[in-house]
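Students often ask what a holo structure prediction actually looks like on paper. The answer is less mysterious than it sounds. You provide the chain, you provide the ligand, and the output is a string of discrete structure tokens encoding the 3D arrangement of the protein together with S-adenosylmethionine.
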Amino acid sequence: MGETWTLLKLLRWMTQYFSEKGIDNPRLDAELLLAHALDLDRVGLYLNYDRPLLQAELDLIRPLAKRRGQREPLQYVLGTTEFWSLEFKVNAAVLIPRPDTEVLIEEALAKAGPCGQLLDVGTGSGAIVVSLASELSDWKMTGLDISPEALGVAQFNVDQHQLTEQIQLIQGNLAELPAQQYDLIVSNPPYIAQCEWDDLMPEVRCFEPQLALLADHEGLECYQHLTNQVRSCLKPEGWLLVEIGYQQADAVEALFVAAGLKHVFIRKDYSGQPRVVGGQV
Ligand SMILES: C[S@@+](CC[C@H](N)C(=O)[O-])C[C@H]1O[C@@H](n2cnc3c(N)ncnc32)[C@H](O)[C@@H]1O
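The corresponding structure tokens follow.
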């Protein structure tokens, strides 16, 4: 007869396996993966520690644990993540939304009037546009991305949150924004410079889409495109708000000022790093 694997025994084994693979929070990842695979919440896991696992359950869990052991991000393995307290589908076509990006949502909400039109440039999974639409029910919003695969994921998330009436998704290049004027343009564009690539964690470097991460001109290319066009794409008093890498604040601020934007500001994230630059037409 084969060895009996209780839930606790498997949890300990996975924690050890993830730890040997250099994963930062091995126990947490093991718990989240097991809870997902067994359709339990984490309290349910603790209550079932002594339960022997069925062969079918072990067969389901093994390939998921192997993927995480190869440093694939947990969110891709689970196929889902949370952002702004909402659930989003994610896969290898989209950047995994980061908690730091929530300060961009906060700034957009602070600048948004009761109604208007918003453009989210480089929408990816749709995390930003969906979160904002869930808060601003009288706004019409557009999510733009160059990647049709990313737009497929974004559309799933828009549908899932029942925001199809409010959000339109379009394929396009941010070097040529739609010929329309918006009250608010938000963007978390690619901003990693090529020289920073090798220092990225394996989870990012080997699994997240390069298209979502890398930008030319020391990571500033997208900000250059956006600030070049912003005066014709924003209505009077409209705002441009962008997420930045923590070392880019001065350079991006200078681009905003050179574009003639007023009230240019830098907002830090909750780790104290510069994270958002904003300016008004
Ligand atoms: C950093 S990700 C941001 C994704 C999402 N907005 C978020 O914050 O989680 C940047 C996105 O920009 C898109 N992108 C890259 N180059 C682009 C371009 N030239 N025009 C439009 N979108 C582009 C990528 O496909 C990717 O989805």
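The radius of gyration is 21 Å.
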